[in-house]
Amino acid sequence: MSPRLVRADGDTPLRVTVDGQPLQGVRGQTIAGVLLAAGRLAWREGPSGAPRGVFCGIGVCFDCLVTVNGLRDVRACRRRARDGDEITTQSRGEG
Amino acid sequence: MTARRVAVIGAGPAGLAAAAAALRAGAEVTLVDAAEQPGGQYHRMPPDAFRTRPRHGRRDFDRVLGHPRCAWWAETSVWTLERAEPGEAPRVHVLRGPADGDGRDRFVLEPDALVLASGAHDRVLPFPGWELPGVFTAGATQALAKGERLAVGDDVVIAGSGPFLLPVAASLLEAGSRVLEVLEANPAATVLRGWARRPWELAAQGGKAAELAGYAALLARHRVPYRTGRAVVEARGDGRVEEAVTARLRADWSVLPGSERTVPADAVCVSHGFSPQLELPVAAGCALTEGDRFVRVDDDQLTSVPRVYAAGEITGIAGAPAARAEGLLAGWLAAGGAPAAPESRRARLRRDQGRAFAARLAAAHPIGAAWTGWLRPGTVVCRCEETTYGALRDAADDPAGGAPRVVKLGTRAGLGPCQARICGPTVAELLARPANPHHRPIAQPIRLGELAAPDEKEQE
Amino acid sequence: MLGAGIVGAACARELALAGCAVTVVDRGAPAEATTAHGEGNVLVSDKGPGPELELARLSRRLWPEVLAGRTGREQTAEWDPKGGIVVATTDDGAAELERFAASQRAAGVRAEPLDAAALAAAEPHLTRDVTAAVAYPEDAQVQPAGAATLLLGDALRAGAELRTGCEVLGGVARGGRITGVRTALGPVEGDAFIDAAGPWAGELSARLGAPVAVRPRRGEALVTAPLPPTVFHKVYDAGYVGAVGSGAGDLRVSAVVEATRAGTILLGSSRRRAGFDDRLRPEVLSAIARKALRLFPGLAGAPVMRAYGGFRPYVDDHLPVVGPDPRLDGLWHAAGHEGAGIGLSVGTGRLLADLLLGRDPPVEPAPFRVDRPAVLGEIG
Known about the structure:
The structure holds three protein chains of three kinds.
Chain A: E1 4-5, E2 13-18, E3 21-26, H1 31-37, E4 42-45, E5 51-53, E6 65-68, E7 71-75, E8 86-89
Chain B: E1 5-9, H1 13-24, E2 28-32, H2 58-65, E3 70-73, E4 76-82, E5 91-96, E6 105-109, E7 113-116, E8 120-122, E9 135-137, H3 138-148, E10 150-151, E11 155-160, H4 165-174, E12 178-184, H5 188-196, H6 199-202, H7 206-221, E13 226-228, E14 230-236, E15 243-248, E16 261-264, E17 267-271, E18 274-276, H8 279-284, E19 308-310, H9 319-334, H10 342-364, E20 380-382, E21 387-388, H11 389-397, H12 404-411, H13 424-430, E22 446-447, H14 448-452, E23 457-458
Parallel strand pairs in B: 1-2, 1-7, 2-3, 6-23, 7-19, 9-17, 11-12, 11-17, 12-13
Antiparallel strand pairs in B: 4-5, 5-6, 8-18, 14-15, 15-16, 20-21
Helix pairs in contact in B: 1-9, 3-4, 4-7, 5-10, 9-10, 11-12
Chain C: H1 6-17, E1 23-25, E2 41-42, H2 51-67, E3 84-88, H3 91-106, E4 112-113, H4 116-122, E5 132-136, E6 140-141, H5 144-157, E7 161-163, E8 168-174, E9 177-183, E10 186-189, E11 193-195, H6 201-207, E12 215-224, E13 234-237, H7 239-245, E14 252-259, E15 265-271, H8 282-295, E16 303-314, E17 321-324, E18 331-335, H9 341-356, H10 373-376
Parallel strand pairs in C: 1-7, 3-13, 11-18
Antiparallel strand pairs in C: 2-6, 3-5, 4-5, 8-9, 9-10, 12-15, 12-16, 13-14, 14-15, 17-18
């Protein structure tokens, strides 16, 4: 199984795209939260191409970097998702 | 006389207490934190849009943040501290705006005194497979549970050392995960001996003891085994964690041969203690304690640099009550409050109790020196650059090289995006001649365009 | 050999390979100071016709020989003959650059003018707002600490001995000749003592009783997070040559932009005299960022993850000091290379060894002699 969101009443949905694919999230989630809740455990590649996702969850390890609306190297665990965000995954050195 | 300007970096328990005390002493306070919400990692709470229950303790925060002499700067990253002329506090260069954004506004604070309260994050020792997705720090597990209402997995192994493993287990149980086991690497004897030292001192930390007892009861209710002298020594899986290998450890954390067990799991949560975030004190020129572990402070929480105070986990891992007491003392004195005031006497007492608690914690949950026996030549030590243990050893053993900076440049260990925040203490430990792993003059990334922008503003 | 930076390592290698019994002493550990804080320039492009260019061309010939056939970890020298591109962004700058390049061509340097199309093909992300551009295919880059480790490793394999944590406290002289040095780890005796202490050469030579005017000049550089390939050569603005040649104590900043093998981009560089004050100044970092973005505007979003600074060994007339000290027999100097010491190290090692062993040096040694006004004049 994968990470999952504990649902609550009153959640306000939001939509983002990840590499062009639409993904539903909930207002207040970080981008890492949206990705994990959607069952994505990994979205970045290290120098060898090995998959990476969240490790430290608090902005220290830089494993979870994504490109948000064209801006690279945003820590997904620290950036609050906004409706309409276009998220692109990164691999080390290849965009 | 104009009020003293006190800048407080970090809005966790220590920073909030420092701001409150500095305000009581009459100072103008600027409280800075990278997060959107006050509270730090300890009081981590979901954002307003995402709340299921009313937040606790918020009113205390509001009294500080809403104070007319307090400027609360959320989402503010300190990207560098600039040492000023002797006798002046360092200048604080900050960026205000969403995390890792571009076009954030640059400001420079020129306070009369500075309180550093930047906190700590999990120390995780490397083991084969720790870079697999599905291995999380205990702090990540907790942050995702409390801040995002997210359970990191269904079948989870929690491992490492320290009492912090227990609330992590509790959060996962609450979210409906199966916690397969909680593994404390130290043997029961070490843990018991550490906690049972001078039991009368524990009375002052009664809240903490009750909290831990509560977690223990919760684990028992869910039939979650708590095993001492056992650790996760490997994570395996194809592109993600599928199983954890646990092993029985001796007191020095060497693996007892033949004791390995394989546990199917979809998440492994680890923490072997805490690493203080020391880049700002180091940039300010503050002296560190033995082994570059913490910021050295005197009885007044003053560092070796005049006008620079430190409080909370950067002075020693002692938990929130001690952090609050330290913050209170630091904020009060930074603002020019009377050293002998009753308030500061009480804070000193609580701080000293907190330090005794920290000593107890360190005695009960030390890191065993033989943990390096878990490593294989191909084990990744620096996650960012995928530097292996073998490469690091070869470089360190080169008779013509071997200096920490030379090893780093040759292997790239610690030179990746996290700038040695994760592997720095480990690499320092693996090298014969350790060097301060906290030297990061750029304390948070700044976009080149932001750095080039000419308009750095002074605080109004 | 007093100093185990890259210049000391290169000299030790030449002497040890020639059969000398070499002892290398260093206050710290090999290559950890100025060498490990350098950018790894192996440049001919920034040098006008003259003795330093000749030393640079000698070094450029020697580097591939020295590095040939290395395998495994010795590849951490990261030799990269990527070539340099120098650009001007004003009409005056263009005229100056073209004149400079013509004089270098006359001296035998490959300096090839690039038209707009060729420049865009070579560096697609470079600003189009360029008035002249010259390619220097001979420019190269090394990872300086890796290269120094390799040079010193050769010396040790040839029998040299290394003493680290061994600060030189003073000299022992008899009849106008230095016969030993006192160190933190006891006395070291020898027939010749080579001052290769980089920015500390002034301080060290004073301790030995024969001071030379080598002083520290501070430099800073920025390092971005790893990026997709964006910069393919060492690219710098023509103002860099002026900043190198300047003697001003105040801040000089010029853009030097290049990628490393790990994908990070190094952005330099600043020069200012501030003694051994190692504080990083945010306004200097901002000035570097502004200059770099004028060349590569597309890097505005790149995160800077690190800044570092170091001390270059500076001499007023901008020439290294290589040769015997006329005041104290047995004392030699190999220092004062300012920002070019990484590139010039192997040529310096060859020159020093040839002089010391009475062989014919491949470049004219007189311009580097110790007995010149910039070196023995006013010290301070």
